[in-house]
Design goal:
This is GTPase Der. By secondary structure, this protein is an alpha/beta fold. The protein is about 30% helix and about 20% strand. It folds into three domains: about 5-165, P-loop containing nucleotide triphosphate hydrolases (Rossmann fold, 3-Layer(aba) Sandwich); about 175-350, 3-Layer(aba) Sandwich (Rossmann fold); about 355-435, 2-Layer Sandwich (GMP Synthetase, Chain A, domain 3). It has helices at about 15-25, 70-85, 100-110, 155-165, 190-195, 245-260, 275-285, 305-315, 340-350, 355-370, 410-420, and strands at about 5-10, 40-50, 50-55, 85-90, 115-120, 145, 175-185, 215-220, 225-230, 260-265, 290-295, 325-330, 375, 380, 385-390, 395-400, 430-435. Mean pLDDT is about 80; it is low at about 30-40, about 60-65, about 200-215 and about 235-250.
Amino acid sequence: MGRPILAIVGRPNVGKSTLFNRIAGKRISIVEDKPGVTRDRIYAEGEWLNNYFSMIDTGGIEPDSEDIILSQMRQQAEMAIETADVILFMVDGAEGLTATDREVANMLRKSRRRIILVANKVDSHTPPSTIYEFYELGLGEPVMISASHGYGIGDLLDEAIKLFPEDKDIGYEEDVIKVAVIGKPNAGKSSLINKILGEERVIVSDIPGTTRDAIDTPFNVGDDKFVFIDTAGMRKRKRVTENIERYSVVRALTAIERADVCLMVIDAEEGVTEQDTKIAGYAHDNGKATIILVNKWDLIEKEDKTYLSFEKDVREGLAFMAYAPIAFISALTGKRINKIIDLIKVVSNNHAMRISTGVLNDIVGEAILMNQPPSDKGKRLKIFYATQVASKPPKFVIFVNDKELMHFSYARYLENQIRTSFGLEGTPILFEFRERGK
């Protein structure tokens, strides 16, 4: 289930990140003309001719590796083999075939994955003589491109989408709420789903990382339809040593991208950690509705108003997610589990909310009367009108005389007024400020 995954693999400095950025349509990977710049694996959504897919830019060299190139290329190839539906095996068309190219090709050939050989740095329609060396790899005819100049990218994507599995891009009906259960390993995600479903549908173990892949579990509550997406727990990168856990991170991120609502599960015994902040940040950056669930609350010794102190700590640790409701639960005992479905429905409705232009402008007009827009050097910000242009999450465009005068504090004030008027608990909201006539 879910979108096809396209992985870009190759030895250092063949142009993987440049191709990734070209397909993604924006600079996500750092591009620099030296090996090993891409230290982390980067993920993005791609689209070509209404075919949507997830894309991975594999990492570069790790300096502390004993055999730098071969060991790192092996890791990249293994990750792509385990994760991707289609692999773009990238080589340097100008330089020609190298021993490292052969090493990676050997692994990919054994994988039985769908592979496209991509010869980069071919800047003209006349192929260089070096291009014929790549036929030795037995991976078919190379697709010649120039990632930096955009030459051949469309032809490459045409070939890629032909190889996508037919059953991958199937979606659920519009009224199905897709819920991703996210968090660190051993936070209790699988136990939570089992408790909600009332049966052992997902493997539960106290060994971190038992859930290796994203598992879809459809279920109904009355007339409401849901799908739970249980994800592998995401660890800190330095602790991710097994390739199987490396690709579980990819699956978790693609699960977040597929979801409408994310249940961010935090271990009450550990509190909000740096890794929790990063995982919640993925959901926030993807514009997902989110509920924060503090699990294992039964294991915490309680004093008067313990939860208030803990709630304050959670709010401080996840300050960027002030809109998300917090529930203190126990997947083991079932405490407050019965409230989660209602919370999911509330934040899902808010995430999809549409506000009419007339009502929205009434609220913005009242906000302006209560608190005048800021001015700078004698010039005052004027707000002409506002309109909602998207949902999931709600996005508003506000037309002004000069967007440079829109201070972040006044933008936050407007957001708070809209939230106060319409609730919008659990969902981020986006603003775009435009000058009238542009």
